[in-house]
Design goal:
The chain is of the alpha+beta class. Helix content is 31%, strand content 26%. It has a 5-stranded mixed sheet, sandwiched between helices. It is built from 4 helices and 5 strands, in the order βααβββαβα.
């Protein structure tokens, strides 16, 4: 049985494991600075800074989608920003990525949020095709980062 659910504070270790897994998958583990204590504090306090959806197959965590909320002054509305979508290799091909994205859309609809944004590597053609199949549109913009 497949279930997509909101993560709780008891899932922090699992969330951290998934973050490390996607970082390793993209050869970017060195960029992960957070730890379980920071995740617990930022994600599950009185004013959470992020949310996580977990995909479970027969009670076993198979993947996740993490997100934050932003505000667009051009739209005059809040938007969801997806940080990560990841499914363990042994669970791929079961449409879990699609189910996670559809659940993210449902979360937006419940919160009266009309747009979801995320980044994808330009050479990740499989992901681009997947997102376009869902009906998403690829915007080509440069992405700057300024560490202060």
């Amino acid at each position: 049985m497949i279930e997509i659910r909101e993560a709780t504070s008891t899932d922090v270790d699992t969330i951290y494991e998934l973050i490390i897994a996607i970082a390793k998958h993209h050869n970017q583990e060195r960029y992960v600075i957070t730890d379980q204590a920071q995740l617990a504090k930022a994600g599950f306090g009185n004013n959470p800074s992020f949310g996580v959806l977990l995909a479970e197959v027969d009670g076993e965590v198979a993947g996740y989608c993490s997100y934050t909320w932003n505000y667009s002054i051009w739209l005059g509305a809040s938007t969801m920003n997806i940080d990560d979508v990841f499914v363990w290799e042994q669970f791929r091909g079961k449409q879990l990525g699609e189910r996670l994205m559809l659940k993210a859309k449902e979360v937006c609809q419940k919160n009266d949020v009309g747009r979801i944004r995320w980044e994808v590597e330009q050479d990740n053609l499989g992901a681009i095709k997947f997102y376009e199949r869902l009906g998403a549109k690829l915007d080509i913009k440069g992405l700057f980062r300024w560490d202060v």
